[in-house]
Amino acid sequence: MKAAVFYGPPGSWPQKPLKIEDVPVPKIGPKDVLVRIAACGLCHTDLLYMKMGMRPPKEPPLILGHEPSGVVEEVGEEVTNLKKGQKVIVSYTIPCGECDVCRAGRENICISGDVIGATRDGAFAEYLAVPAKVVIPIPDSIPLQDAAIITDAVATPYHAVVNVAQVKPGDTVAVFGASGGLGLNVVQIAKAFGANVIGVARRKWKLEKAKEFGASEIISTMEIEKPELEIRKMTNGGVNIAIDATGSPQAVEMACRSVRNGGKVVVVGYGMQNFAVPFMRFLWYELKVMGSCRYKPSDLFRVVEMVHKGMIKIEGLVSHRFPLEEINKGYEMLDKGEVLRAIAIP
Question: Which of 32, 116, 280, 329 has the smallest CB count inside 10 Å?
């Protein structure tokens, strides 16, 4: 099968681009499913391995790609809930189901599970073999290629908004990085759960997309030097919840300074740098600063239902589609901030 392979070393891209080559079709076990990939989303997390030098858990060579949609090609002999030809998406988190945190219902931070495109080969390929327990059917109402972004760009914000921040009707929520692939979905999911949303990002033209997806107000950091002060002014003291979708230390600090007394700050953006929390504000105002990591595979059922019912929209999120042979071009554009969300098509 055709695949895009990262040979490393970490941090060597784009000088050493992903290579398109033929590799064996993966074998499946009795509890597994072979999925013929329709599309796989391009994600900034991959750039941390490719460009920023973070080492993936599995040493290269590694097939990246963790946002897949496709069609069931083959099922293992013990699989009874899926059949060949079924349209599906795949959770990139594969929890063990046996460790303490899994038993506590927090499978997204499983101690010993797998992550496709990180601890094992991913979906920048024509086929992907995964356990049936993380394969989720989708209805015909959801476009198959676009459905790929549900598995990270939508489900990860869902976990941050619903499970971690626990947004409720009437909350005011500031979203930092509101114009990016994660941020746009933080905006629309917070809006869907009844929040009044303020979107913060650099580029004004991309922030207009945030308004389209539910932000009532937008703030460009290229126009306003201290958005946290503007937010506190707009909200008479600060928002209830600030969610950072960038992973930038500067954005996290701004988020901490934008919430009211007793507010919550949730960091869902992925980065490599440490960040500082304004200590006296954290202590005296009893702020809660929380991380949000991935999602539980079971979250995908609810997200798919919300997309199907029109409560979450994915139309308009995918701005660019690249054949697998042009995946390096796609990552170059993603790295420059020239796409909203992009997918690769084998």
Answer: 280
